[in-house]
Amino acid sequence: MAPLRLDTPVKFLKGIGERRSDALARLGIATAHDLLWHLPHRYIDASMVSPIARLKVGEDAAVVGRVAAKGILPTRRGLRIFHVVLRDETGAIECVWPGQAFLDRSIEIGQTLLVAGPIRFYHGRQLAPREFVVLAEAEDGDGPDPIAAGRVLPVYPATHGLSHKVIRGLIGRHLDQLIGLSPEILPDELRLRFDLPTLPDALRQVHHPSSTAEAERGRRRLALDELVDLQLMLGRAREVAKRGRQGVAFEVKRQLTSQLKDHLPWPLTNDQKRAIKEITADMTAPERMHRLLMGDVGTGKTVVALFAMLLAAENDYQAALMAPTELLVEQHHATLSRLLAPLGIEPGLLVGRLTAADKTRIKRQLATGAMRIVVGTHALVQETVTFHRLGVVVIDEQHRFGVEQRAALMGKGSAPDVLLLSATPIPRSLALTRYGDLDMSVLKERPPGRGAIRTSVRSDSQRDRVLDFVRDECLAGRQAYVVLPVIEETEKADLMAAKTMADTLAARWPELVVGLVHGRLKATERDQVMRAFREGTLHVLVATTVIEVGIDVANATTMVIEHPERFGLAQLHQLRGRVGRGGQASHCVLVTRMPMPRLKAFAATTDGFKIAELDLEERRHGDLLGQRQSGAADIRVARFPDDNDLLAQARELTKAVLSADPSLDQTRHKALRERALARYPKAEILFRVG
Ligand code: ADP
Ligand code: MG
């Protein structure tokens, strides 16, 4: 047998065959390396678990016991309750999961469960689990209980068909060998200076701790490494952005910018004014601007970007705005055309579907400098596009582009200023890790004169009334979205549900036109449906979460979200941002079987930053089922705000490395460079350009 390497596919490891490797793939584990880095998301030790006999009503407890009985109880109101009787040596307790009958498929008699949640009184003591873990399968038999034996038990994210216990066994079995393949990568001098355990030690502490404190110490080393990798990339990106010639020091000539101000159909908000001031200060300075403009949908980022573009234009430079989809580009183009009309400027449009002749014409105008303002998709970064003198680059929904695409557009000028736009407010700690290399302007205030959005939470039984309301809105000339979740694991069933919903609504409302968009449609088909909705041909759009961020249909005033409990709060907020874009009052209705407090908290605020905090908090408390919500995708070990201090440490460490060795060429940094690039393969370009 070939010797084990970190890139060996897991199916070649002892104890893992095709079937298990398929299950592991669902957890994102493809190689031996992935298995080693599949870290416990929680530890249990004896001190946390209460004997069932001693549970008291009102307390919040964790218990371990075997499933002695289970079943589904219908209630009079049509809610189906899944319940289990859990038994340990001291006694038994009933656990109930209202509305989660599907658990009947994953929880079996004889399994050992860890369950945590509040104890209440309902015909006896009852536990309402917030979370549960299958610690052992029925067929695992009665082996010694590791918790009772006083050991700290790591709990791993598990998946259907692969219990946490099996995963623990697999990792335990290969741990020594895998750690042997993972030598320290930090130079000793740095490791000692920051008082860190070695990488092999940290990995062992995390997977096989003798105390939870030790596990935490290991985790923090791994979290630090993760942040160091990120900071190395950010530091390098900043370096590359500033490298070479200095930026252009634009002059405020009060020509186009002043004209725009005079002709705006509305006054700027204070936040917009401040952002424009910050951008102007950057652009008039000799260094290159590298700024992120962050604001919820509808806070008016486009006009702020336009000021930057006009400042370049009045200095005889060109400006380019890039957005991720043709639809968004067209929308920006329409907005800019409208705002620029009084100035006699016509912005250009460069998207894939133009005729060859039109493309050639626009490319010529860009090359000669005749066209000063252009809006486009990634068509802008094609090799055949050249600019006469590109002064500022604006990138909307910047996270939807890869590092290379952003770099490629910046490379079209000699040292253009860069303004990135983001409609995803994030808490400060995250902003630091993700955008540590950027200056930031924030728009919080919404322009006045837009209809307020009222959010309400309704139960399943009220759906008919909600739908009648939607119909009335549409008959009154407005439009509506009906959104359904599509979660990867259950994609097929979810898509069916979306299709069924569209059919049901079409049958229910013969007087309305109902359309459907989902992620399986081709981009062109999707654009077609979205266009029809924007043009008002469709009254109702049934959609999975693919409806674009930033899509602006002012006439759409109602959004119904089905199964809102399956969305993260930040995602709900993004969805909701698609209504309330016109003058009329708008409505967002969450229809759910589980009107949970988190949904009520969401309904109570429209502040994107506040919701981002709530969302982060939710993710931090994680979910024992291991369903990570999308978010900080590359940050998996670090947790905020707990690890805020690590952030500072990572920056310090990175600075020490980069100031001694800016492109990580030295032998002592080779491992560091390799790992950072393995984590961020797309950032390779940052090291190639030298
Ligand atoms: P964002 O990109 O931040 O979601 P947009 O730039 O698309 O927001 O602006 C949303 C809408 O608000 C646009 O129709 C725009 O014309 C309008 N708008 C922008 N600024 C103001 C303002 N100060 N007062 C009134 N309306 C504004
Ligand atoms: Mg926008």
Characteristic terms for this protein:
about 700 residues, alpha/beta, OB fold (Dihydrolipoamide Acetyltransferase, E2P), Rossmann fold, 7-stranded parallel beta sheet, binds adenosine-5'-diphosphate, binds magnesium ion
* Low-confidence segments: 621-633
Largest sheet, described in full? Answer: 7 strands, parallel
Q: What's the CATH first level of the domain at 256-284 and 298-422? A: Alpha Beta
Got a strand count? 21
Radius of gyration: 28 Å
Number of helices: 22
Helix content: 25-40%
**Beta-sheet strand percentage?**
15-25%
Q: What is the approximate shape?
A: globular
Bound molecules: adenosine-5'-diphosphate, magnesium ion
Question: The CATH topology of the domain at 256-284 and 298-422, please?
Answer: Rossmann fold
What is the assigned CATH homologous superfamily of the domain at 256-284 and 298-422? P-loop containing nucleotide triphosphate hydrolases
As laid out across the biggest beta sheet, the strand order is 11-12-10-13-14-9-15
Oligomer: single chain
